[in-house]
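Task card 7
Instruction: Convert sequence to structure tokens.
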Amino acid sequence: MMIFKWFNRQLLKMEWLFNLVQMLVEKIFGLSIESKLGGSVHFFIYDVIKIFILLSVLIFSISYIQSFFPPERTKRILGKFNGITANILSALLGTVTPFCSCSSIPLFIGFTSAGLPIGVTFSFLISSPLVDLASILLLASVFNWKIAIAYVVVGLILAVVGGTIISKLKLESYVEPFVYSNKVLEIEEEQLSTKDRIDFSKNQVLDIVKKVWIYIFIGVGIGAAIHNYIPESLITTVLGQDQWYSVLLASFAGIPMYADIFGTLPIAEALVAKGVGLGTVLSFMMGVTALSLPSIVMLNKVVKSKLLWIFVGIVSLGIIMIGYTFNAFGYLFL
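Output:
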């Protein structure tokens, strides 16, 4: 138990980094972290460094695992199952693909072209941006293990239920014809050496960091402002747990944004610290990652409007239900 607590404090929450940045802010910059400016500077530097360290380590590890599951192998594995079993497996495979919602769309096209049921591919499409292995450790580093595990579990349930409903509705005719006619080549799976997998993992780290660094800076900047400059009374008035509309507002406020869990976590951290309900915060994070406007626009190119709005409706309803549930029982996780 002592080892676990040390691991949680020093490796996930990085208390050593917190103290180091505090020394930097107070000794070098001459600012007290109790002041608004000093607190904001400390929040920004500490969170940016912490997120980039965790991001690099986690994406490298996940990408190494992912190297054993190229698209051809993933399609072959999923093709052996049907029904809810296939949806569960598809959602789980989505957790080892650290993609944002937009980069998941090409895989959705590939899976559908290969003949996989659309309900199975939608389970993957929901799970891939919403839940990944990195989210467990990142959420634990900001909040705690109970919240991290609960987030992943409800995210997987949403992916499985959403894909299953779409399967039952028999909506194959609402996928654009070019998706089915897209020729899929049967490529022999490449055998990678350990060095190849390491190189692949390093390249994935560089590629993903290049894509998300700006969102991390923006997210941490917003989080720092919320944490130190926006009065708690104002935030609780708008998004307080006692406001019946807070979950609805948070769920749909995230849709215009384009970010992933790395950019939304600092905002979520600051909102929770200001007294916003856990369910409201999780709804915001899920809205940003699973229903970003760019991904909806891209998906609109490959499915017809009816299927698109059914997908958006199912995911939105699921996120809202998750939000109200966590607001009601959030005290169990804090």
